[in-house]
Write a structure and sequence with these properties.
The chain has helices at 2-27, 29-42, 66-77, 115-128, 163-169, 193-206, 233-241, 266-280, 309-319, 335-350, 369-389; strands spanning 46-53, 56-63, 83-94, 96-101, 105-112, 133-141, 145-146, 174-179, 183-190, 211-219, 248-252, 259-264, 286-291, 324-325, 357-361, 397-401, 418-423. With 424 residues, it is of the alpha/beta class. It folds into 4 domains: 20-93, 2-Layer Sandwich (Alpha-Beta Plaits), CATH 3.30.70; 96-169, no CATH class; 174-291, hypothetical protein tt1634; 302-423, 60s Ribosomal Protein L30, Chain: A. The protein has a 6-stranded mixed sheet, covered by helices on one side. It has a 4-stranded mixed sheet with strand order 1-2-3-7, with helices on one face. Strands 14-17-15-16 form a 4-stranded mixed sheet. Helix 2 (29-42) packs antiparallel against helix 3, helix 6 runs parallel beside helix 7 (233-241) and helix 7 runs antiparallel to helix 8. It is rod-shaped.
Length: 424
């Protein structure tokens, strides 16, 4: 009887074990699975998957960072009676990169598998946006981080991983140039490094004693193309516009509308607008010029004469207000004007051969330009001839016709149909 009972118990034990296992799986495993998933989600794990086989548990998912991964694994290990075996910890930290753009800084954050790739990305972004400081203090590396399966480093500017950030960094081109008494200052963004260098070289050629400061001008292939950023054409305009005395300003942005400001003659204004037309197309030029009769009337014009400064000052006093007036339609030098020039001649002779003069006729803006230019040149030559008769050497004296200036303009001559004498 006892032997039969022992055999019966031996047969019943596996059955009881199987029933217990079946009841455990049916009653407890679903609840344990849900509890494990809840703990993983609480730790920040995305797309958690839990596989429980009897008392062994395997977990899969994506943690936002290594700290969250460790927190998730600790939560699973504390879930009794389940056991987390080595190799069943399939929670990964996928590489991540976020960027925050501030006024002059791009701040990076996230996780990479290795520090070398962080350095590589910093260098790449700095090349794309040299105007920004790249701050990667919040971008960390850890061996627990892995790249997405579709991504293989090194990263490039076309990598899908970086593209969303790089696309937001693309900026329109712009150019600003300020010419003042002692410096020409450039700033802005250009899509071509060679164009930037050409502009700097061009300004260095025409700067004279002024300093050219290009520190604020950056160039990068990440800058959007712009119609105005054309090799040769843009430097040609800059050479002409900034080759005359300051102050003057030039601004142009992605809208293609140039903004010009400074002093100009009518001829200069026409030349500059012609040089801009291939750069701006149909865009309207916003020009704010103070028109003057000639280059010698620019406030920033520096006298080229080699005379001593005190001699130049004395000559300027003698020439100030010494306009030679003519009758309408005439180039005949009136007697009273001859007397005025005869009185001035000894002062000019005393200056010596280093004296350089410009004898310029102011045209009447109310008379057709072609007629006024012809008679204006005749008036200037009449004054030159009279001075030569008085012994003034003609070696460095020019007779010219100034550009007309609208009546009422600050630079308009006080007397119409006059000839003015200026030191070169």
């Amino acid at each position: 009887m006892r032997l039969s009972l022992c055999f019966f118990m031996l047969i019943l034990l596996p059955v009881a074990t199987g029933v217990h296992a079946w009841l455990f799986c049916r009653e407890n495993l679903p609840a344990l699975t849900q509890e494990a998933i809840a703990r993983l989600k609480a730790a920040g794990v995305r797309n958690p998957v839990v596989d429980i086989r009897y008392f062994d548990i395997a977990v899969t998912g994506e943690a936002p960072d290594p700290a969250s991964r460790q927190q998730a694994l600790a939560a699973i290990r504390s879930l009794g009676p389940l056991r987390l075996q080595p190799g069943a910890e399939r929670i990964h930290v996928l590489a991540s990169l976020r960027a925050r753009l501030e006024p002059a800084t791009l701040r990076l954050s996230g996780w990479f598998p290795d520090a070398e790739e962080i350095s590589h990305v910093r260098r790449m972004l700095a090349e794309l946006r040299p105007d920004l400081a790249i701050n990667a203090d919040e971008l960390h590396s850890s061996p627990e981080v892995r790249w997405p399966e579709s991504l293989k480093p090194p990263l490039t500017s076309s990598s899908p991983f970086l593209k969303p950030i790089i696309d937001t960094l693309r900026v329109p081109a712009e150019l600003h140039i300020r010419s003042k008494d002692d410096a020409i200052v450039l700033s802005g963004l250009l899509p071509d490094t060679a164009l930037k260098e050409d502009l700097v070289d061009t300004l260095a050629e025409v700067a004279g004693a002024r300093v050219v400061d290009p520190s604020g001008l950056k160039a990068s292939p990440h800058v959007l193309p712009a119609a105005f950023a054309k090799a040769e054409l843009l430097p040609a305009f800059v050479r002409s516009f900034f080759g005359v005395p300051p102050p003057r300003f030039f601004d142009i942005q992605s809208d293609g509308i140039p903004h010009l400001e400074g002093f100009a003659t009518r001829q200069m204004e026409s030349t500059w607008l012609s040089l801009l037309r291939p750069l701006t197309g149909a865009a309207k030029v916003e020009a704010h010029f103070t028109l003057v009769p000639s280059l010698y009337h620019f406030p920033g014009y520096r006298i080229q004469s080699k005379l001593a400064p005190e001699v130049i000052t004395s000559l300027q006093e003698a020439l100030r207000g010494c306009e030679v007036v003519f009758d309408a339609g005439s180039a005949h030098l009136l007697p009273q004007e001859q007397t005025k020039l005869a009185t001035l001649a000894p002062t000019l002779l005393a200056a010596g051969p280093a004296l350089g003069l410009v004898i310029g006729a102011h045209p009447d803006p109310a008379v057709p330009e072609k007629i006024e230019k012809a008679i204006g040149l005749a008036r200037a030559e009449a004054v030159l001839s009279f001075l030569v008769e008085q012994g003034v050497p003609a070696a460095d004296i020019r007779a010219v016709v100034f550009d007309s200036v609208p009546a009422g303009s600050p630079a308009a001559p006080a007397i119409l149909r006059c000839v003015e004498l200026l030191i070169k």
